[in-house]
Amino acid sequence: MSKDLSVLLQGWDYNPNEVTVRRVLGADGREKIQMRLDLGVLQMEMQGRPDGKRPHGFESLLEYHLDRKDRAEEALEFVDWGLDAEECAEIKQEAMQYYYRYLSLFHLGDYWNVIRDTERNVRAFDMIRDFAQEEGDRMSLEQFRPYVLMMNARARACIALEEKNYDRALQLIDNGIESIRDFFREVEREDLIDSCREIQFLEEWSERIQNNRPLTPAYRLRRDLTQAVEHEDYERAAQLRDQIRELAI
Predict the structure, then answer these.
(1) Range 82-86, long-range pairs (CB < 8 A, 24+ positions)
(2) I need a labelling partner for 18 at 20 to 30 A (CA). Which of 102, 107, 194, 234 fits?
(3) CA distance 201 to 203
(4) More confident: 75 or 58
(5) Dist. CA 244–CA 223, nearest whole Å
(6) Quick check: 19 and 36 in contact, CB under 8 A?
(7) Are 81 and 75 in contact (CB under 8 A)?
(8) What are residue 132's DSSP bridge partners?
(9) How many CB atoms are closer than 10 A to CB 47?
(10) DSSP secondary-structure letter at 189?
């Protein structure tokens, strides 16, 4: 069998302006994700670590180091536990694998697993921030936290939108915005909130949803009531109030 990737990629062109991904059935019978890159293709497992490896017998390096931390905390004698520079670099590389997978999953519409992988990467960020031995490592992933929080909020809101629960979607977007603001407050960089691209994206998306959502009868009446009051059309406003009360009965 030829090992030339050209056959595999024939008819599946790379587009630098969009994320190009697909699901395929692997030779082992399990579903895989493939992401088209400029020089080939990246293939990932749907479950577990994206490259299919089990470092030290654990699902991921994150799980392995969490187990190390738990055992250190349970030890009868104090154990000075932490992550050295090499261990941090390995966890960062692993987090990149999960980034490629949750990005692919988002474009495939698999929002529940986007939530799974983004929450997993937040835990990896927390571990390095809290336990890295070198100060430079502790903050090395924090610049990416707003993006991960945004993607988590997007996935949650997309699930609500699929269910046509627009109020829930808007609330989830607001929660995502607030979680990013909280992050900047925690690191004492509130000056970055107004220029944060992730917050700006979520705010603009929220506005588009509000402008394009199907209007319920009650929403239309309340909107018309506000306009009537603004135009001092009090007779019309009184009629609209009566109609709103009737809907509430």
Answers:
(1) 82/131, 82/132, 82/133, 83/127, 83/128, 83/131, 83/132, 83/133, 83/137, 84/133, 84/134, 85/133, 85/134, 85/137
(2) 194
(3) 5
(4) 58
(5) 11
(6) no
(7) no
(8) 83
(9) 11
(10) -
